[in-house]
Specification:
Number of domains: 1
Low-confidence stretches: none
Number of helices: 5
Strand order of the largest sheet: 2-1-3-4-12-11-10
Number of strands: 12
Radius of gyration: 15 Å
Mean pLDDT: 92
Strand content: 25-35%
Helix content: 10-25%
Order of helices and strands: EHEEHHEHEEEEEEEEH
CATH topology: Rossmann fold
Distance between the termini: 14 Å
CATH superfamily: Class I glutamine amidotransferase (GATase) domain
Shape: globular
CATH architecture: 3-Layer(aba) Sandwich
Structural class: alpha/beta
Length: about 190
Amino acid sequence: MAQVGVLALQGAFLEHERSFQRLGAGAVEVRRPHQLEDLDALVIPGGESTTISLLLDSYDLRQPILDMAKRGIPLWGTCAGMIMLAKGIEDERVRSLDLMDLNVVRNAFGRQVDSFETDLPVAALGGAPFRAIFIRAPIVGSAGEGVEVLARLPDGRIAAARQRGLLATAFHPELTEDNRFHQLFLDMVGR
């Protein structure tokens, strides 16, 4: 059984835990560096990216997470977590992990009242479109050559992508009952 850590500094970490548990995976809340040991993967959930950036340093988590990525341990960032994985961010207040060849725009759709849901075709998931929930969401402005685009909005903007052992979604799969993105991540762990 895979042991997936979920960064539990803020944001929708409990919802991620429940999604992994429904799929039979172990889910561990991570708040300190020693809790990263023996994990098969890590999720950086949504929340507020400037706060997450500061808390990674306050809790001495930045370097251990970077070390995990160097060892090839899969990482998944949802919403603010996508921002934390990106190499390029259009906001100097956020110090990302600089791992994934994405340029990301924070709060690309506006304020909380501009949040929305939409159905996204995702070939990697098979079957029906995925109902994506965007809450003060970022969006990918551009992606490098090694990035596989998994989902686009109807206007063509990138909403989900994968690069080697890294997965990023601008939306919140954990807020739905559809566990296909969580299963996709577990499949990445199994490789």
